[in-house]
Amino acid sequence: MSANLEQTSFLFGSNAGYVAELYARFLQDPTSVDPSWNGFFKELDDDTRSVLDELRGASWTLRDGADGAADEPASALGGPSNGALVAHAQHVYGGISHQQLRAATLDSIRALMLIRVYRVRGHMNAHFDPLGLEKREPHPELDPATYGFGPGDLDRPIFLNYSLGLETATLRQILDILHKTYCGTIGVEFMHIQDPEEKAWIQERIESGRNHTDFTVNGKRAILERLTAAEGFEKFLQLKYTGTKRFGLEGGESMIPALEQILKRGGQLGLKEVVLGMAHRGRLNVLTNFMGKPFSAVFSEFQGNPSSPQDVQGSGDVKYHLGTSSDRDFNGNIVHLSLTANPSHLEWVNPVVLGKVRAKQQQRHDLEREQVMGVLIHGDAAFAGQGIVAETLGLSELRGYRTGGTVHFIINNQIGFTTNPHYSRSGIYCSDMAKMVQAPIFHVNGDDPEAVVHVSRIAVEYRQKFKRDVVIDMVCYRRHGHNEGDEPGFTQPIMYKKIRSHATTRELYAKQLVEENVITEAEGDQIVQDFMKKLEGEFEASATYKPNKADWLEGKWSGLEAQAADSEHRGNTGVKLDVLKELGLKLCEYPKDFAINPKIARQLEAKKKSIESGENIDWATAEALAYATLLVEGNGVRLSGQDSGRGTFSHRHAVMYDQNTEAKYVPLTHLRPDQAPFEVHDSPLSEAAVVGYEYGYSLAEPHSLILWEAQFGDFANTAQTIIDQFISSGESKWLRMSGLVLLLPHGYEGQGPEHSSARPERFLQMSAEDNWQICNVTTPANLFHVFRRQIRRTFRKPLVLFTPKSLLRHKLCVSNLAEMAEGTHFHRVLGETAADLLPNDQIRRIVVCTGKVYYDLLQERISRGIKDVVILRLEQLYPFPRASLTEEFAKYPNADLVWCQEEPENQGYWTFVDRRLETCLKSTEHKAGRPVYVGRPASASPATGLLKRHNQEQAKLIDDALTVR
């Protein structure tokens, strides 16, 4: 053994760690060590323990037995000396003094503390800003003087125990390595990660190459070609369509070769499919130069031509909102790409992308989550400012929502519209939010394309290995302001004065490659000329470009079709009676050794009796039967929400818990051996992200029933952006169908303004062009059919379903199994069912209503013995069932017509149904002429918070509806 290694073993070895043992004893009893060592240890800061631990290579433990204190020198430990150990020390050190030993140890500890701080804070001295406008003061903790090093210490060898891969190094060498690794054009934040393996992997990956990018000649040329395409496309658009808004990528061109690297390296690591989501900036560049959309198609759209064939209906959308899909071939490894369409609401596409990723992973049986990955491209101000980012990150490690990690790529313009960073965020970096899920963050200068590509490769390797989120923060700039028609000099004159004189990324990189003798200047110019010639050809072709097909009914959507507006198509939703009974009884079973809750046991016994008799099927049973029948027919069911397993109102109990072990039992997963999968997930306390996630799932999986349940209907308020911008209008804008079901508990029962109304007026106001279905059903049988209708039709539409609370256990809200059997179907309108009323021509009033108020009206009519009032139930509000209602109205030619609702007049359904009811009356020349409103008066609040007032209001509206004067 060499003397140096012997010294290492003596000083820092795991078996005879001299300094480590001293420190361990100091921690137990400071008086047990020599006063000089006592003072030495007291001067060290809080990082000392971890640094000493790194030196020793083992955790702090005192050795047991006779080899403990007796093995240490008396002068050090304050105890009796062991002659053998002293002799060993003299042999190794040649009589080194304790003072010298302390000095050498202090050098090592301080150097390792310095190294550790560079790992933690080195990014704060890095050079990210290509414009050089960000003036940061050098961080004091990165100054060697902070640790007691002076100019005279630069060339003294220091023992490092192979930290930075070195056994010993001078301070000068250490600082040079640290600056190159952590303070160049790449800065890394990873020391916040708690998992030791992940942290060690990143550290090794960064430090092993000193963060130097090592590209071959062909690799460098490929980066230059990608930069040329990115820059050339934007310049061409600016030339041909000067000032036209396109949200160009200028200043962030390095993203294009970075995405190429993510795809190429990811494909080598098992990636088969990537789902992308991004805001406006650079979208057209991504569509063409990364996704492979024809340049001629984009030029045609700039000329005002549609992006889809003429025979495809829909409103369409602006170019920088559109998505597409394609296959990319990397030496035989084909990766499928899909860019999700999204509106101007920037980050709101994030959960949609993750939902699509999860669905595609399920389809591929990608249990390891390495074949399908999400890539989200963000803006800096939006990433920091929009809460949906945090909500989406919060899903990343949850059982029902994890996708194996997402690569987040931030195009950091260093500005948000006209707002400077120090006005738009409180943290140092726009990416700080990602630390909540311990994601590593790579900050990189956008004008160093090799560095950008380098960290992109590390990022996708990390994601594929650890299946966790990772962030690339590419600091760049935007050359034309917020958009091409903007004048950014109004608000950022200094920045844009600098930008106007700043060479482009491609120009800088081409110059670098010329200096490196990778290309000649003429070769660089030729690459530009060849690409511009290609664009000219594509531009000429755009004059006659015609989109040849729409891709919205391909792949998993094959066999489905577009549906004409106002169709009465119901689908085949009835099920054989014997199947209903078989599955119903299965829902009542549980393992013999399962300690079931006694209350649930009684409920299951009652359910079993109703199944056997075929009568008194309640809401929860009908719902479960709908799911069960779809599952055995091969259609998956996915239900999520904040209390979906049990149900907010304890009606569902789709998941049962052993009362002794809390082991779960889910009856819907034990129907038949070959059934489709059933998932039910209690979601985090998020509406926006979870609804977006489930919507995204439904975009990729049309053959499963996807449902989101609000805890109360008004909880949907916080998902309104997803509902407005995606669910209600996605098919019209982007030709993307969805069969998502929103379950929104709704009904006025004295629970106050926040838990009464699901705001049906909002959904009805957005109803047009057959964009979705709005229902408020009143029978379990109709619930059964409306769920199955979602899957059994040849098209898909979102369903907004207002669900009950009190009706879940209402004695009148029951159905028979026969109403769900073969030949039965969903009823948009439920006519009068009482047999003891007067003949139709003697009926004096028709009351039309929807939802829970029907049962209040029915019970009051029975208690008063009223015989000349009929009650019609509007089970589907949109598409409006005009034909069915007109037929019902014609039965009662001498009646007037009342619309009754619980909601205030300016809310609920009245403003939607008013004219439509009138149209139905006029079509039969009915004597009623126009409907009359009965309900609560207009109100700013959805409901009163006082139970006594609620009861008074409810009694009045019921009386007004039933009293014919």
From TrEMBL:
The protein depicted here goes by the name 2-oxoglutarate dehydrogenase E1 component
Query: Which Gene Ontology terms cover its molecular function?
Result: oxoglutarate dehydrogenase (succinyl-transferring) activity; thiamine pyrophosphate binding
Summarize the subunit comment.
Homodimer. Part of the 2-oxoglutarate dehydrogenase (OGDH) complex composed of E1 (2-oxoglutarate dehydrogenase), E2 (dihydrolipoamide succinyltransferase) and E3 (dihydrolipoamide dehydrogenase); the complex contains multiple copies of the three enzymatic components (E1, E2 and E3).
Q: Which InterPro entries match?
A: 2-oxogl_dehyd_N (IPR032106), 2oxoglutarate_DH_E1 (IPR011603), DH_E1 (IPR001017), KGD_C_sf (IPR042179), ODO-1/KGD_C (IPR031717), THDP-binding (IPR029061), Transketolase-like_Pyr-bd (IPR005475)
Which family is annotated? Belongs to the alpha-ketoglutarate dehydrogenase family.
Gene symbol here is sucA
**Top-level EC class:** oxidoreductase
SMART domains (alphabetical): Transket_pyr
Q: Which UniProt keywords apply?
A: Glycolysis, Oxidoreductase, Thiamine pyrophosphate
Q: Which cofactor does it need?
A: thiamine diphosphate
Q: Name one GO biological process term.
A: glycolytic process
Q: What does this protein do, in the record's words?
A: E1 component of the 2-oxoglutarate dehydrogenase (OGDH) complex which catalyzes the decarboxylation of 2-oxoglutarate, the first step in the conversion of 2-oxoglutarate to succinyl-CoA and CO(2).
Organism this protein belongs to: Azospirillum thermophilum
What are the annotated GO cellular component locations?
Answer: cytosol; oxoglutarate dehydrogenase complex
Against Pfam families, the record matches this protein to:
2-oxogl_dehyd_N, E1_dh, OxoGdeHyase_C, Transket_pyr
Which positions fall inside the Transketolase-like pyrimidine-binding domain?
A: 617-810
Keyword flag Repeat = no
Per the UniProt entry, the Enzyme Commission number(s) are 1.2.4.2
